[in-house]
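Q&A log
Question type: sequence-to-structure
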Amino acid sequence: MKGGGMFAKNALVVDDSSTARTILKHQLGQFDVTVESAHDGSHALKMLRNHKPDVIFLDHVMPGLNGFEVLQRLKADNSTRRIPVVMYTSQAAPQYIREAKILGAVAVIPKNVSDEQLARALNKAEVYQIHAANDGVAEPSQGAKHKYGGSSSESPQPIESSPDPHHTARVTNPIEPIAHNNVSQLRGLAPSHAAYHSTQEQPTRRRSSSLWLITLLLSVLLVSHVHMFWRDQEQKQLIGDLRQTINNESARLAAIERQLSLQQNQINETSYRQVELVMNLLMDRVGDPESEEPSSAENTKPEL
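Response status: OK
Response body:
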């Protein structure tokens, strides 16, 4: 056990999903738990050679070794057998829970685990480590066959046949929920970890969860507003360009209209002048009869 005011100071989360690792890391951070991550079982076993966390959260469906195979290897190794393991998986069938209990898991929690479920799992992990330090850890049954692969490599007596009824209860019942009315018993064993259920810690965790959710919603809202702003700017720019194009085309059409009107006026004036010229020529050819008659009479008058 670590010193200070809380049992689990660091945890190892083994999961091939980066999203699941991030979510669980955030939730454990509310309990002041430092988290290291491994992306599969082989990676986790390598990390455990040089570092021993207070608790291990282990996914089941992973590439390579599955969760039960990793759990078997942890319980078969004297350097890791006393580390409490919590199965962190979407598996919820009773058969799966029984198999996890037989192999030595202290709890099975869902992927969408609540803060209360997580606190209970940490309680179980602490109690398990206390019992392991005082009495030793009972091993899974030899040759226990299960559908998730493999069998245990150790050969102790079955858990149910243990002569110590208290010891049997501690090992065969590690995944049953710890009710709130048992907190006083946990305080007698580990007074530091009872703070998970204290009335002072609950509001803090709720506020932290609320702040995280509010921050996430505000971030989404900000991104949405920025996106809408840029779309609005693009639409305004497009409308401005269309208006400029329309204005340019209108000015060009007005210039063409003025030019056509000027040409039409010139044509009309030319036509009028041509008609006037023709009329003048015709008038010159025909002559004025009144002005010619006196001339004729005057020419025909006899001389005296």
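Response note: Confidence is low (pLDDT under 50) at residues 1-6, 137-199.
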